[in-house]
Amino acid sequence: MEDVEIEKALIKKAVGFQVEEVIEEFSIDENGNQVLTKRKKTTKNIPPDVSAIKILLAYYDEKTFDELNAMTDEELRQQRDLLLQSLQKFDEKELS
After folding, report:
1. Partner of 55 at 20 to 30 A CA spacing, among 16, 23, 43, 86?
2. CB–CB of 43/88 below 8 Å?
3. d(CA 60, CA 57)
């Protein structure tokens, strides 16, 4: 994996994402063939991951892990929100 791919995956995990899940059920007909009897599609929300946020904060803000570990949950949430705003602005520029 290239560094860019790793960074994109880390950002995705830090901000959260949605994933589509498909569940299929099969039964056997009288000829012994598998027949699809039920298909269910759901969308799952994967929430932001605090560990990924810490890594990104350490990477972008050049803070040490000790400083990040000393931060309160509220401070981490504030930093996460700032990072999300920055990423959103970055995405908007990329799409323009």
Report:
1. 43
2. no
3. 5
